[in-house]
């Protein structure tokens, strides 16, 4: 592995970092990315792996492509993993031993942060001073480690919340567990400590200022991207349906994501029940795929959704699918008439952009970043609230006007083009550069 680092460490003289004019701020050469509770190597849609995993992997690859090396520290979840894995050229994943490998819930991780920090410091101790230029932490658990690491290494801390306890608690699904006070306190401390905060949308930036008294000058908005090579219309809906054994002319409202109250897959099932009550004839021409695995408070009742489908009398039209890889997920998006996202809270809703990039409209709750992701009435529909009848009404429009899926789907694919990861990486690199510039100026003024 040391060969790998030294190989990457020797830059060609033509690398952009050499062309800097005197006095212009310097971009980081190497960034330590912290993702304590979810590994970038995990399958999204399982356990706690979701949009954030995709975000970290895609962003890291694109940063490496513009000559910013990335080392991602994550908690080892099996003993079989090597200490370091090359995910892509210029992207290294370091597995840190902290707590038991298996069966540790996200709620139990705060107790392992000391062990995790120790592992990060051990990796750093093997390097020359100044090895990392900056720390980028994701989610509040990583923020605590990042805060300590950045202070110890004398580098700036950039933090991305992804979700916020105060925002989640203000919009709890029925029967969901509120986020603990310890998380609220932890997030407040990180907001104060970070040199820059990255928000997915301007709404999230506003929430950081409103709920956590973040300094507006430290908050930068970077829209997450989507892998436009993977998520694209490809050979179209008919071919995707053929591959997934779905009827060609059926109404296919799809749910894709972690199965937990926050994501509200139950709202889709209840909406389908309302629709079939009104239109019994539709029963022979509707398939409702639920693609994903139980997560969070959904783990307590993993069979809950199957039982609900049976109770509502729609078990015959619902297809439960375990989480699938990204390429197959793209096929599920292509095959669907519409992706349904009735979430109670979404910091961005990456799945909405992925589905649109694949040429599929989205029916979503008007919460969080979803109004940025979905253009209401053009690339899909936004619904306020979680009343199943409102979702049923939109599904009825898709059933009555089969061309809607195609015309909106084409607009959706065009809309998604502006959410490429290259843009996200370039804006993130600018945030890093500004954070380093301010940090150095601050250090100089203190020592001056």
Automatic annotation (TrEMBL):
Keywords: Glycosyltransferase, Magnesium, Metal-binding, Transferase. UDP-N-acetyl-alpha-D-glucosamine binds at residues 43-44, 51, 258, 263, 324, 346, 354. The keyword Glycosyltransferase applies. The keyword Transferase applies. Residues 1-28 are annotated as: Disordered. InterPro entries: Glyco_trans_1, Glyco_trans_4-like_N, Mycothiol_biosynthesis_MshA. It is an enzyme of class 2 (transferase). Residues 242-414 form the Glycosyl transferase family domain. GO terms for molecular function: acetylglucosaminyltransferase activity; D-inositol-3-phosphate glycosyltransferase activity; magnesium ion binding. It catalyses: 1D-myo-inositol 3-phosphate + UDP-N-acetyl-alpha-D-glucosamine = 1D-myo-inositol 2-acetamido-2-deoxy-alpha-D-glucopyranoside 3-phosphate + UDP + H(+). Its EC number is 2.4.1.250. Residues 50-225 form the Glycosyltransferase subfamily 4-like N-terminal domain. 1D-myo-inositol 3-phosphate binds at residues 37, 48-53, 106, 139, 163, 183. Mg(2+) binds at residues 333-334, 336, 360. GO terms for biological process: mycothiol biosynthetic process. Pfam families: Glyco_trans_4_4, Glycos_transf_1. Catalyzes the transfer of a N-acetyl-glucosamine moiety to 1D-myo-inositol 3-phosphate to produce 1D-myo-inositol 2-acetamido-2-deoxy-glucopyranoside 3-phosphate in the mycothiol biosynthesis pathway. PANTHER family: D-INOSITOL 3-PHOSPHATE GLYCOSYLTRANSFERASE, GLYCOSYLTRANSFERASE. Belongs to the glycosyltransferase group 1 family. MshA subfamily. Homodimer. This is D-inositol-3-phosphate glycosyltransferase.
């Amino acid at each position: 592995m040391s060969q790998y680092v030294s190989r990457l460490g020797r830059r060609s003289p033509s690398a952009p970092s050499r062309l800097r004019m005197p006095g212009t701020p310097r971009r980081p050469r190497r960034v330590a990315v912290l993702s304590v509770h979810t590994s970038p190597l995990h399958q999204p849609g399982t356990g706690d792996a979701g949009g954030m995993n995709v975000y970290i992997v895609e962003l890291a690859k694109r940063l490496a492509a513009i000559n910013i090396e990335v080392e991602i520290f994550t908690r080892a979840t099996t003993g079989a993993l090597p200490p370091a894995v090359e995910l892509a050229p210029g992207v290294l994943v370091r597995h840190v031993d902290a707590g038991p490998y298996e069966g540790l819930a996200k709620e139990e991780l705060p107790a392992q942060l000391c062990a995790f920090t120790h592992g990060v410091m051990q990796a750093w101790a093997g390097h020359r001073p100044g090895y990392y230029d900056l720390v980028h932490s994701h989610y509040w658990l990583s923020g605590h480690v990042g805060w300590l690491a950045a202070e110890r290494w004398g580098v700036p801390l950039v933090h991305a919340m992804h979700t916020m306890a105060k925002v989640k608690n203000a919009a709890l699904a029925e029967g969901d567990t509120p986020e603990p006070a310890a998380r609220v306190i932890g997030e407040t401390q990180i907001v104060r400590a970070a040199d820059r905060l990255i928000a997915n949308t301007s709404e999230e930036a506003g929430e950081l200022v409103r709920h956590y008294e973040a300094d507006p000058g430290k908050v930068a908005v970077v829209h997450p991207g989507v892998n436009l090579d993977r998520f694209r219309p490809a050979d179209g809906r008919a071919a995707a349906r053929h591959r997934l054994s779905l009827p060609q002319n059926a109404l296919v409202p799809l749910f894709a994501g972690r199965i937990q109250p926050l994501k509200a897959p139950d709202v889709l099932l209840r909406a389908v029940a309302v629709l079939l009550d009104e239109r019994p004839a539709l029963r022979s021409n509707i398939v409702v795929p639920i693609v994903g695995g139980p997560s969070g408070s959904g783990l307590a009742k993993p069979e809950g959704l199957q039982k609900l489908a049976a109770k509502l009398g729609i078990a015959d039209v619902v297809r439960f699918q375990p989480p699938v890889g990204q390429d197959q997920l793209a096929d599920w998006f292509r095959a669907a008439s519409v992706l349904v996202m009735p979430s109670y809270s979404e910091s961005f809703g990456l799945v909405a952009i992925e589905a649109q990039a694949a040429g599929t409209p989205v029916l979503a709750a008007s919460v969080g970043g979803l109004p940025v992701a979905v253009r209401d009435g053009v690339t899909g529909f936004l619904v306020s609230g979680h009343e199943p009848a409102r979702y049923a009404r939109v599904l009825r429009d898709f059933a009555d006007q089969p061309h809607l899926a195609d015309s909106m789907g084409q607009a959706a694919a065009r809309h998604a083009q502006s959410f490429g990861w290259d843009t996200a990486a370039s804006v993130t690199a600018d945030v890093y550069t500004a954070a380093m510039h301010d940090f150095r100026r601050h250090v100089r003024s203190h020592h001056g």
